[in-house]
Design goal:
Largest sheet: 4 strands, antiparallel
CATH class: Alpha Beta
Strand order of the largest sheet: 2-12-8-10
Number of strands: 15
Distance between the termini: 56 Å
Number of helices: 5
CATH architecture: Alpha-Beta Complex
Amino acid sequence: MNFLTVKLGNVAKFINGGAWTQSEYTNKGIPVVRVSDILNGRINLSKCKYLSSDSLEKYRKHVLYKDDLIVATVGSHKTQQSSVVGKHAIVSINEEGALLNQNAVKIIPIDENILDKRFLRFLGSSAFFKAYIAEHARGSANQARIAISELKNMDIALPSIDIQRKIGRVLASLEEKISLNDQINQTLENMAMTLYK
């Protein structure tokens, strides 16, 4: 299989999360995805904040879409996984339309005929990607930061677009099965707890 080595910044674009004041938050409206809402490769909106629906036009460039790769650019040392710099999430259909907050970046293909979106999302969850960020992040154990320029400078091995799409389909199928198993396990756990009570 032939791979082309390219800089991530040559095939992907990076959109920083937005910054807004506390006074802009509302009790309902457009969900805001903060770094603290990202855990284990997923987004949990159960404790999210909201911006008024009227602010959508103003912050349109920060809107999230299904399969977007989100990476935290600020966080802690790699020994603290729940808040580590570089932790990632993949936007699901449930979070589509939410807005990305500061200290995170959305990474998407410049051209999906060169870099497949699903292939990119699995690259973002790879050990290689995490190790690169851990090596290039700067700062203390409590406050580390990865510069966007460092992310853009990452060398990635890119197979042909057909191979990328095949890899993306296979991994997405496995991910769906894992998610379904998690749901089944949760249901069984809830049933067991109900029976116990």
